[in-house]
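Box S2. Input/output pair 1.
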Amino acid sequence: MAKDRPVAFDTQDNSTLGEINITTGVLENIAAKAASEISGVLTTVPKLEAGKFLRIERTGVVAKMNQENGRISIDVSVRIRYGYSVPEVAFSIQDRVKEQILFMTDLVVNEVNVHILAIETDSYSDQEFLQLEEEYGEDSKIETGV
């Protein structure tokens, strides 16, 4: 579906002052932003080596909108952090996306399909662990003051 394709807009208010057009790209951006605000959702994806060289950035949240017979459905693809409950994150995404689109555009979303692409570990903590291992050696024990 093209990003600049207008979506039929039926306002809840009966007064009309003119025509309002909202493109699918706007709805997709609202959905992606709303999903990225949920705790546990990764907003950026680690770059591949070629991506680092070419300075290509990938986003962790992708939203696609479909409209059939006046019904709006949104597919949201996300990566989540390890340690978060997948169903809880998915339900939170569904609620947040529907709520934000209704609040910002007065359009009712009939369904929000959440696709979990991956469960990612925090790359920073892995890198810190490897640095500690290199400094102190594999066999040495690091005591923490807990």
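Box S3. Input/output pair 2.
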Amino acid sequence: MTAEGIVIGEDGLARPLWASSDPLLREYYDTEWGLPVRDEQGLYERISLEAFQAGLSWATILRKRPAFRAAFDNFHPETVAAFTEADVERLLQDPGIVRNRLKIRAAITNANATIALRDEGGLVDFVWKFQPTSTPAPATYADVPTTSPESIALSRALRKKGFAFVGPTTMFALMEAIGMVDTHLVDSHRRGTSGVWS
């Protein structure tokens, strides 16, 4: 491992330490993290999972993602928006997901807010208009920010639209995950692969 936290894998590819040992995290890093998400259902799912992740490791959420998708009907906004208190209680008994009442209710709240945003051009356009004009170029983990002016503004704007569990740090993590910013370390094999940033 280099001082910057980059690990050269057996395949010869450079990845950050967090994506180097766990096969699930490595697959997610290589094929999904940092690639643009520009469909409503996909973006609603990412917002939901980032909210569930708050205070937990991303590995925990990734391992539970199949169960989350089953429990939340693949994060279909109309279906989740119609969930009742009985559904909340049912989900609190589901050992496959993170059983947190506030986070479950936030997913339902955010489904309704997602639907409401369709009158203003939709969730995708709303979120992506906060894309910054430049992206970080971190050489080490110490260089990777946890918030940005844009994530703070996005958090504030989503809250005004009725979204919950969308704090600035959570929104920066979302922006990283969907390619709005490229925080791949500069020596990573994935740096610059999103098509968003040259």
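Caption for Box S3: The CA atoms of residues 19 and 25 lie 5 Å apart. The chain has a mean pLDDT of 93.
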